[in-house]
């Protein structure tokens, strides 16, 4: 109930704030474990994506966001779970793999943090690890325009799922996913 109310309020607010356009929503599988691999330039990114997915999205969020009790409860209700940045957080990785195995829609910013200049940074190899361990399809997601001012265009493009071959190295998988997102960006 909290999820539905907050999601609808945030979605309405985003459509007031931006001229939102969503493309490729049909590329998100309606069931089964799946990974949304996204670029990251703004605090609005996860909101733009999460309010427009056909099912609840789960996402890693820096653990610092969970220090205030009410906010921690709220973002947990919305699908966020904490990750310790700058180290291999085994608890978060195990939770992620279980979530995907149980059929969840997991999303991750492949750069690990926001890009300050809007250009895609190198993908962290953690995305490659998660993909290779889960063997889940990966939907590349390009988010654009969320750093712009009021009433400006912003949106999300969900690309066709990418299935990476077994045994691919983590760095290679991360690079392949980054290139898939860059192709979506170039087509805009």
From TrEMBL:
Keywords: Acyltransferase, Transferase. One of its GO terms (molecular function) is 1-acylglycerol-3-phosphate O-acyltransferase activity. GO terms for biological process: phosphatidic acid biosynthetic process. It is an enzyme of class 2 (transferase). CDD domains: LPLAT_AGPAT-like (cd07989). It holds the Pfam family Acyltransferase. InterPro entries: Plipid/glycerol_acylTrfase. Its EC number is 2.3.1.-. This is 1-acyl-sn-glycerol-3-phosphate acyltransferase. It comes from Aneurinibacillus soli.
